[in-house]
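Task: fold both queries, return tokens.
Query 1:
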Amino acid sequence: MPTILVTNDDGVHSDGIHALADALRPLGDVIVVAPHVEASAIGHALTLRRPLRMERLREGVYEVDGTPTDCVNVALTTLYAAAPPDLIVSGINKGYNLGDDVTYSGTVSGALEGALLGVPSIAVSQQRTMETYDFRHAAAAAAKIAALVLRSGLRDGISPQTFFSLNVPSGTPKGFRLTVQGKRNHVTTVDERIDPRGKAYYWIEEGENEWEPHDRSDFQAVRDGYISVTPLQPDMTDYNALAKLDTLALENL
């Protein structure tokens, strides 16, 4: 039976991670290892300056006092010491991870770390809402993509470090779209306030966003009511720039 590690950045007590784990159990042996508190927008942070602890909460559910990246590393070196899991799935995040948000996302970083360690991985995010979250459609979508990955491996002609980011709109999705990362003009808003002692402090807000039109972007897919499936990879090299710089013979500068 396949083995599946489930993690997230909303914390081990988030409803989303347990809805995800439940949806994946028909596919294999699922273990949840997640941060003991919310670790949203922490990116690909790795804890190096203090020790980490992992606690078993109940059968198949563990918490780590660290980041999603920590959780994946601790799980693979302890619970999966004999053999790595067949799949890592991170989510379900409360809020989209579209476009360049993937660089901030702890959810995406959980899958990224799995990919770096050679394990097929998926990140799952759902549209934010002020109402009660209904994770059924996102969990079902994750299970469908997970089954596809486990069945086919998706390795022929694809980099071993490729992983998948799913973004699921609210309501009943119209289906799946294979997408690219959207692009936007991102303006970060920093709100300066004064505390009771007269000292300044700052809140970083989500900012204002204007998405660039693109028929195949993740943003356009969810806007149209579809589940966005974006293949990502850790390699951030700009190969066009590399080719251009080759012509400049930088080594002769």
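Query 1 returned. Query 2:
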Amino acid sequence: MNNQIFFFFYNLAHQSQIIDNIIIFFAVYFPYLVIALAGILLLFYLPAQAGRKFSREFFTVFISSGVAYAFFKVLKILFQVPRPFDALSGVNALYEATGFAFPSGHATFFMALAIAIFILHKKTGYVFMFFALLIGLSRIVAGVHFPIDILGGFVLGAGISYLVASLAKNVYNADILQ
């Protein structure tokens, strides 16, 4: 089933140079924009909206993402799952990717970021979850991840964000988790 879902999305690639460039944008460059938007959100929007302290938002959002990043690195070493272009014949990635596939580091990091933002501000969190989904799907279409890699990253990132938010609640004695 993992391979069937992979090929359903992967077959969208290599149809047109314009579509391939859009896929590459969302898989490679859009993540930088999302990080910048999260930084702007933390600096200006959330503290002003809720009267919260900057340190609490920073801790919840970027520490969640950082811890998720560390966990995904360890899991990649433990599982050592090959990428689709290494595991399946006829798969040509739209761009070069190295290392192992499971879990997806991008999916882990950006879902951790999205869930942490969701904990702080629900409506904005949904937007960042959509961004994480776009990034994850584009990496499947680009041929660098299987769906299970993305799903595993989403679960890992979400779980770590909730754990870090719980820790932040205890550290700041604040009502972060509602």
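Both queries returned. Flag for query 2: Residues 17-172 form one domain.
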